[in-house]
From TrEMBL:
An example Gene Ontology biological process: rRNA base methylation
Keywords noted in UniProt: Methyltransferase, S-adenosyl-L-methionine, Transferase
Record-linked InterPro entries: NA-bd_OB-fold, SAM-dependent_MTases_sf, TRAM_dom, U5_MeTrfase_fam
GO function terms (MF aspect): rRNA (uridine-C5-)-methyltransferase activity
Residues involved in S-adenosyl-L-methionine binding: Q227
Enzyme Commission code(s) on record: 2.1.1.-
Keyword Phosphoprotein belongs to the record: no
Family to which this protein belongs: Belongs to the class I-like SAM-binding methyltransferase superfamily. RNA M5U methyltransferase family.
Domain (TRAM): residue spans on this chain: 1-55
PROSITE patterns given in the database record: SAM_MT_RNA_M5U (PS51687), TRAM (PS50926)
Annotated Pfam families: TRAM (PF01938)
Record-given protein name: TRAM domain protein
Length: 255
């Protein structure tokens, strides 16, 4: 694919920035606003292109060494803006939300994206799914690709969460669901399609994980949805309760 030198503009969803080339919009991944970058076009969508950074010629002040050792052009599709300071990354996300609200809903918002908790920019994820390739090794997908990255050092994960999994011999096309629950226990469940059914096997721990919000606790299947960020469920619960402002005897519906 062709290479271009561009100057990036506003942030877009998914860790990209908007640039322009001869009247065409180019969504540039792995760039920050205001950078001059050399990019490789990765997809032609007719009226717009997708591209990824090959070289940063003039870096933005907020660019740092990536917090994630496996994210990036040649790596996994995780940690979209690990190359920006945490403060800058939150500001970019706030700009994306503000743009969507105004463009799609006509609502002007000038709020800020706040940290969910004091967990920090790394080590906050408690649930993850790995896919197993033909070489029987688990990994993360590259961005919008079936290809796997078998280096499991994603910065979102706490130390030890995936210990021992890379060394095991897994069936090709299997999925590994890994959870560290609110009791600190690790659970590993393997699923894979067998004809029209999905076979499930508990490899470590149990099929259900303990999750807590406030004084309540639940047994949630490892393969089911729960907020991946260790602080998210509690923050959302408190926020909704604050907005709802329930009175004694009131009934709340969870939709």
């Amino acid at each position: 694919m062709k290479e271009l030198t561009l100057v990036t503009g506003a942030p877009a969803n998914g860790g990209s920035c908007v640039a322009h080339h001869e009247g065409r919009v180019v969504f540039v991944r792995y760039a920050l606003p205001g950078e001059r970058v050399r990019v490789r076009v990765t997809a032609d969508r007719g009226s717009y292109w997708h591209a990824e950074v090959v070289e940063v010629l003039d870096p933005a002040p907020d660019r740092i060494a990536s917090l994630c050792p496996i994210a990036g052009v040649s790596g996994a599709g995780c940690c979209d803006v690990a190359f920006a300071t945490p403060e800058a990354a939150r500001a970019l996300k706030a700009q994306v939300v503000a743009n969507q609200l105004e463009r799609l809903g006509g609502h002007r918002w000038d709020g800020e994206a706040e940290p969910l908790s004091d967990a920090g920019p790394t080590g906050w994820r408690t649930r993850v799914r790995l896919d197993v390739g033909a070489d029987r090794r688990p990994g993360f997908h590259r961005y919008h690709s079936d290809e796997l990255v078998t280096d499991l050092r994603c910065a979102q994960l706490p130390p030890g969460m995936l210990d021992g999994l890379a060394e095991s011999d897994w069936p090709p096309a299997a999925h590994l669901h890994v959870v560290v629950d609110d009791d600190g226990a690790r659970h590993v469940v393997r699923t894979m399609r067998q004809g029209k059914r999905t076979a499930t096997k508990v490899v470590e721990g149990g099929y259900e994980a303990v999750q807590r919000v406030g004084a309540r606790s639940w047994q949630i299947p490892v393969t089911a949805f729960w907020q991946a960020h260790r602080g998210a469920a509690g923050v959302y619960s408190r926020l909704v309760a604050d907005w709802a402002d329930p009175r004694a005897g009131a009934t709340a519906w969870d939709l």
